[in-house]
Design a protein that fits this description.
This protein has 146 residues and is α/β, with parallel strands linked by helices. The chain has a single domain, classed as Rossmann fold, CATH 3.40.50. Helices cover 49% and strands 11% of the residues. The protein contains 6 helices and 5 strands; from the N terminus they run βααβααβααββ. Strands 3-2-1-4-5 form a 5-stranded parallel β-sheet. α1 crosses α3 and α3 runs antiparallel to α4.
Length: 146
């Protein structure tokens, strides 16, 4: 089964000082160990870059561009990078309209649209509630991965 690794899991896994570091890295290791195929979309990598290169004082990781690029290279070596496609936008528009998605939650709706278009049925995330409106997606938090 294809499992999308949400951007927040990527950020937590890159920050050993995060209180969620151990849970995030344990969950991805367990999923990989049992043969799940973990994936990301370009959007996840862009969102990771934004947080990774933002100053620590602004709730970022404070990475340099070189450090962020190195981490993205590591992520792409671990997880399958699924391509964006022209089919994602119409699906996104349908979802945001159908579910009256507002503000920054439109980013999550785009991931949900990309998952539907690409046949990804599950999501590893620290924010299950952000995706509960999308019934076609099975969500799991790191603590739920056994």
């Amino acid at each position: 089964m294809l499992v999308l690794v949400d951007s927040n899991i990527l950020v937590f896994s890159a920050d050993p000082n995060s209180p969620f570091f151990s849970e995030a890295t344990r969950a991805t290791a367990l999923l990989l160990g049992r043969g799940e195929e973990l994936c990301v979309f370009p959007q996840n990598l862009i969102e990771f870059w934004v947080v990774a290169t933002r100053p620590v004082a602004s709730r970022g990781l404070g990475f340099s561009a070189v450090q962020a690029h190195g981490e993205i290279t590591r992520i792409k070596s671990m997880f399958r990078l699924l391509p964006d496609s022209p089919a994602i936008y119409p699906e996104w528009e349908k979802l945001v309209t159908q579910h009256a998605v507002l503000g920054k939650n439109a980013h999550d709706a785009r991931l949900a649209a990309a998952m539907q278009v690409s046949g990804v049925g599950a999501l590893l995330t620290a924010d299950k509630d952000d995706f509960k409106r999308f019934q076609s997606i099975t969500t799991m938090e790191p603590k739920e991965v056994k």
